[in-house]
Structures are given as structure tokens and as C-alpha cells.
Prior knowledge:
The complex is a heterodimer.
Chain A (H helix, E strand, L loop, with lengths): L10 E4 L3 H12 L5 E3 L11 E4 L1 H9 L3 H6 L6 E6 L5 E6 L5 H6 L4 E4 H12 L4 E2 L4 E7 L2 E6 L4 E4 L1 E4 L6 H7 L5 E13 L12 E6 L2 E8 L5 E9 L10 E3 L2 H7 L5 H8 L5 E7 L7 E2 L2 E3 L2 H4 L8 H17 L6 H30 L8 H8 L2 H9 L3 H4 L10
Parallel strand pairs in A: 1-2, 1-11, 2-7, 4-13, 11-19
Antiparallel strand pairs in A: 3-6, 4-5, 8-9, 9-10, 12-15, 12-17, 13-14, 14-15, 16-17, 18-19
Helix pairs in contact in A: 1-5, 1-10, 2-10, 10-11
Chain B lengths: L2 H14 L20 H15 L5 H6 L3 H10 L4
Helix pairs in contact in B: 1-2, 1-4
Amino acid sequence: MAHIGRPNLRIAIVGGGIGGLTLALALRQRGIEADVYEQAPQLTEIGAAVALSANATRELRRLGVLDTIAAASTEPSELIHRSWQDGRRIAAFPVHHGLAYQNRFGAPYFGIHRADLQKALGGALAGAGLHLGHRLVGMSEHGEALRLDFANGQSVEADLVIGADGVRSLVRRYVTGGEDAIYSGTSAFRGIVPVDRLPSLPDPQAIQFWMGPDAHLLHYAIGGRGQDVNFFAVVEGPAAWPHPTWQAPVTQDEALAAFRGWHPAVSEMIGAVEHTVRWGLFTVRPLLNWSRGRAVILGDAAHAMVPHHGQGANTTIEDAITLAEMLSHGSIGGIEQLLSRFQGLRRARTRKIQRSSRVTNDLLHLPDGSPAIADRDRRVSRFPEDFGWIHAFDALASAQPSPTVSAA
Amino acid sequence: MQPTEAIIDRVLREIGRLDDRQIAATARLREDLGFDSLALIDVAVRLEDALGLAVPDEELERVQTAGELAEYLKRTGAA
Lengths: 408, 79
């Protein structure tokens, strides 16, 4: 059998998104080569922006890419929760102000365009082992190895396959025998607006949740100078999602109607973008097993979550660092046992964040007059106390083979 | 104690740090034993690993006592 760390262990990473690139980079930093197979002909992240919290930025700093990322990022001035109609500040905490967040969690909080993050990761990788235009269509056992078949007609064999291929992961189907993504019953409108087109917006450099009946709007600034505002506006419904992808056509009127009557800053932001699609929000049921033989999944493929804690990308980066670090320690007991220990380190933590994100949806979507409003206001006022465990986490430390493994 | 009850007893003691306490089947997980929703996920994941059975979030939110947890696990195939 091939041994980790030996040049003949063939590692194939399926998916060149944030998880796959972070993993490849972390492996290379540890002297382990890997091949990344990405279906797209170029590295072009779809979607808009992503918020990176300390549990990810401390790892990106260790990978040596945080300065590049910082140059394209904005750290929010504050975290603010507001009421949908009158814009009342319900709770606020400093983030960049006084460097409060970094001082508390040891690393910054950044808003960044996904394309800029991918560029930073891909740039550091400098094309090493990256195979574009490779869409996985089949996986099969081939002796001790796994064979990957791609739509372009090529096939490769690998001793370890890591599926970082997202919420509609093909590797997950191989691992679980067909576990599907689940529509959450909520969908989103999203966009990026130059900040100077948002004159009604109070605190444009903050990360803000506007909470209202059956909907909320989240926004934060991105770009090296905070010049753009990325927003993500979530609504209840539609009840079913019959569409083949996570995008469905929508008219501008539908998008505007969903936030009619909201504070002018909200309607101004929604109206500043030409909406042609809405995004269905999908999750994956917590899985008993993340691996089958020598195939394992991570990131959205393993634990896709609704984005209300902004932790999809961050937990994916944690997964990648954890797995890379474990692989660098060698395969005591073999790869399959290593993969079992990997999910043992990751399953509880990611499930907690999945659940917490789901519960947060309801908290953000209360109608006026709901008896739960007082509890909501109390909860958002306890944000650092209640959610510090997400941000303070140190994935690299958790992956050390010592008896003092930190708990999730 | 039945095997499933013994495993539940051990997991609850470890996650809840209840070393010196007696865990009755009627003990309420939240009110009597002090588990919050996050600690209950630790319990669920440990039970899943020990028994190879899924303990979904909705079951975790439904069960009130250690005994109900045992009943659920036995219904889904635990010894």
C-alpha cells in the first residue's frame, strides 16, 4: 500500500473552489503533492462575496496568503442588527473599530469577493497540479485505487480522492450511495452595489442584518477600500424548488415586491441591481459517514448549510486545514482509519454550525408583534458570547495528534 | 443495564461531565442534566459513532429524557 508522504501516493482533489484550492495549498506547504480537478475551463467563482471569520483567516495567514487577501478585503466597522422598517439599531458590536474582533479572536474578519479569494489561493498555487476542464462523471474502485472518469474522456487513478465538489457533489454520491442536497424552503436575491449608489444606507462599512417579517437582508462591504457593498437578501419560499440548478429565473418586480415597505436603504439596495435570478438555499443532512474506502468529502459536499452565520466557506477552510495536517502526520493505521479520525474531528462541530445557522433563519424572519421578538433582541445582543465558539476555533491546533485535542 | 442504555449512560456522563450523578431513565436531558442544544449534538454524534445509527436533529429536539433517547435508538435498530 502507498504511504502518505511518499511521492507515490496519488491524491486527487475534485473541485477547484475554496475548499479544493485551500487543501492543495495546505498539502503543498507540508510537502505533499496533489492534483486538483476542476470542471470549469477557468477558475471563475460564481456567486458574489464571502465573509471570512477568524477561524478561517488564522489559517489563511498560516498559508501565507492573508496579505494578498487583505488587499482585496474590507473589515466591517461594526456588526449591527436592525429592524426592517424603521432601521432601529437593535444591537451593535465593534469589529474593526478598536480592532475589537482581532483582539478577541486573534485574526481579522474580512469581506471579500469570491473571485478575489479564489485568485489569491489559485495564485499561491501557481497552477501546480491544477487540471481545468475536468468534470467528474464517474468513480469506481480499481484494485486498491480509485478511478476517476471525466467528461473530457480522460481518466486517472488515485490512492486518495477528496471531494471538495460542493453541495451537488458527485463524490458524496459515491460515498453515501446517493444522499441529495435538500432545499431549505428559503431563497435569496444577491448583488454587489458601489457604495456611492447607496445614499440612504446608514453605516455602509458595517456588516448589518436587517430583520423583518419572513425575510432579512445581510450586507457588508468588500474590496480593499470598502468601495462596494455585497448584499444577500433572504426570503421564505418558494415552497418547492423544481429547478435543475440552484438558480431560478425571476423578474425585477418579484425581487422588489419581496422587500416593499422596508427601510429606504433596503429597497434602494435591492433596486440597485437588475435581478434575473433567485438562488435556492440548499443544505445537506448531517451524514453518518464522510468517507467510503479511500474517498472522502469535505466542505459543502459534507455539510452544506444555510448561510446565516456566514460559515460555509469558513468551515470548508477548517476542513481542508484539518485534513492536510492529519495527512502530514502520516497514515498510522492506514488511510481509511485516518479518514475516520478526520470525520471524528469535524462532524460534531460542523453539525453544530449547520443547526445554529438553520435556527438563526427563524430568528431573523419574525413578524412585528411576534411574542418571540423580545427573545430575538436579547439573543442578538449576546452575539459575541453565544457565537464566540465559532470564531475562536483553531483548526490546526485541533488536528494535532496530542491528547490535548481541543473540543469543538 | 441493557447495552444501549449503558452506551447512553457513558456518553451522557462524558459529554455532560456528570461523573458522580445517577442518571435515571426519567432524567430530563435539558432541565435535569443541563444539556443545551450544542451539547446534545455532541451526544448525538457520539451515539451515532458508537451505534452506527443516525440521530437526526429533529429527533434530538423531540426527545426529553434519557429513557426516550434509548427508546428511539432501539426503535431504529440498536440492541
